[in-house]
Amino acid sequence: MRTYADMTFEEVMEAFADTVTRLAYLRMGNEQDAKDIFQNVFLKLYTQTMEFHDPQHVKPLLRWRMYRNAMSCMS
């Protein structure tokens, strides 16, 4: 079975793009802010090490980063 640790950045982004976009839109209420948050979340992921020891940590990490970015945009 393939884990997220074996995935490329593009594959991780493709797997979670809808989730991050949807959550960002629900949090912000407009498409442009949701796109900005999406970009920030995946840019941060891209610039960090893409090795996940536990694949179950990927989705919560992305959700947490989305939430933090949304809170930053709102303040």
TrEMBL record:
Domain of life: Bacteria
RNA polymerase sigma-70 region domain location: 14-60
GO BP terms, alphabetized: DNA-templated transcription initiation
Single GO term (MF): DNA-binding transcription factor activity
InterPro entries: RNA_pol_sigma70_r2, RNA_pol_sigma_r2
Protein name: Sigma-70 family RNA polymerase sigma factor
